[in-house]
Write a structure and sequence with these properties.
Length: 404
């Protein structure tokens, strides 16, 4: 997905404790470009070169039927709308014709709608946001239309509660700090500065201020050479003992947002970036994305000897990685990883390394971290401390009550 340079979002005065991150339902998004071509007698040559939005075909990438989850599907014609054309699909298993869009009945393409939400939550006014939409997509959208979209999607964009307070601290240009990292491939490391400030000002999160220092340090002083030569955390195969580890399946707002945002991803390759950027700007708890992290042999030795953790990893190389999404909520730091087909995945080793490395880099207790992986349908989480340290049942119950 093509992305606006640095976007963000904000909400108002409601406390961060009352957010909908536990006990909800589900959606998906992405933001491809729609270049509106004006068809007139003097521009026919250009119109032949660059098709209008109604000629743009969306929904061409589908893995399964949304009704029965069957994979025996074929393309079955197209549906022309005012500003876009949608691919229709047929499922042999349940014999239904469907489109891949969850959000239906919209005059404007969903990427335009979600981009409008992000512009407003980044601190732009309604009028400024619609002007930017017109400049990018060619649609003359009225501010009242954008206001209607904001009301419709307010449950999936809770940063709206913090927006006014965020605008008092940062301009739309500065609200998200963005750094381009060339670590074997290009990563767009972004931090939502307003959200981070507001969350860390809450009493239950004040102890996590070292996170802000670390995020700032990595933006300006990341040890890039480690990411060129070290091993990758996502490819580690540590044999962690999971006998005492409880992996909890939850309903979480992250899955609902994924259901909405991933509909706008132009390609599978851009699904991560599309989802990450939308969550960073529009939810109330995601403070950073693509966070660079590293774990050295010295870190491993120290945590094994001083902390007494059981960490079944080789200690001969530095392991590096990039955390998909970093959240602060409910008195804990949450490390999230988006995994398509999450129900079939179990990235315990990868997430454990992220948690151990972040604990070492910030000096915060491993007790303060929670790890999770998710997609648009499922969300699974566990406490990393339970993986490397045997704790008594009373302490385990206490940790569970604190996070629940």
């Amino acid at each position: 997905m093509t992305s606006p340079s640095v976007t963000t979002s904000v909400i108002t005065t409601a406390p961060l404790l009352n957010h909908p991150w536990h006990g909800t339902t589900k959606p998906t998004i992405t933001m491809p470009l729609y270049n509106q071509t004006h068809h007139n007698s003097t521009d026919r040559r250009q119109s032949r070169r660059s098709p209008s939005p109604s000629q743009r075909l969306i929904g061409t990438q589908v893995e399964r039927c949304p009704y029965c989850s069957g994979k025996d599907i074929i393309k079955k014609g197209k549906r022309r709308k005012k500003y876009e054309t949608v691919q229709l699909w047929y499922c042999y298993h349940c014999e239904r014709v469907f489109t891949p869009q969850v959000a239906k009945g919209k005059t404007y393409p969903l990427p335009v709608i979600l981009h409008g939400l992000s512009l407003y939550h980044s601190g732009h006014t309604l009028t400024e946001s619609t002007k930017r939409l017109k400049a990018r997509y060619g649609f003359a959208i009225q501010p009242r239309t954008l206001s209607t979209w904001l009301a419709e999607y307010k449950t999936l964009t809770p940063y709206r509660r913090l927006r006014d307070r965020g605008m008092q601290r940062y301009t739309p240009r500065d609200i998200v700090r963005s750094v381009r990292l060339h670590h074997r491939q290009v990563y767009h490391y972004r931090t939502h500065q307003a959200k981070l400030d507001l969350i860390l000002a809450e009493r239950e999160h004040q102890a996590f201020k070292p996170i802000a220092t670390f995020l700032t340090d990595m933006a300006g002083g990341c040890p890039h050479h480690l990411f060129q030569d070290g091993g990758r955390a996502s490819q580690s195969k540590g044999a962690f003992n999971l006998d005492t580890v409880e992996i909890k399946e939850r309903q979480n707002l992250a899955s609902r947002i994924a259901m909405l945002a991933l509909q706008t991803a132009p390609t599978r390759k851009l699904r991560h970036d599309t989802l990450q950027r939308f969550m960073l700007v529009n939810d109330s708890v995601t403070v950073a994305m693509e966070v660079p992290i590293y774990f050295t042999p010295e870190d491993l030795t120290l945590m094994q000897t001083d902390a007494g953790f059981t960490i079944p990893l080789a200690s001969d190389t530095t392991l590096t990685g990039h955390i998909d999404l970093l959240q602060i909520r409910n008195g804990a730091i949450h490390i999230l990883d988006y995994k398509p087909n999450a129900a079939k995945e179990k990235p315990i080793a990868q997430l454990m390394l992220y948690a151990l490395a972040l604990s070492r880099r910030t000096g915060l207790r491993l007790f303060d971290f929670t790890c999770a992986w998710f997609d648009e349908h499922d969300y699974f989480e566990f406490f990393p401390l339970h993986v490397v340290h045997k704790i008594n049942k009373s302490t385990q119950r206490q940790a569970g009550r604190r996070r629940d």
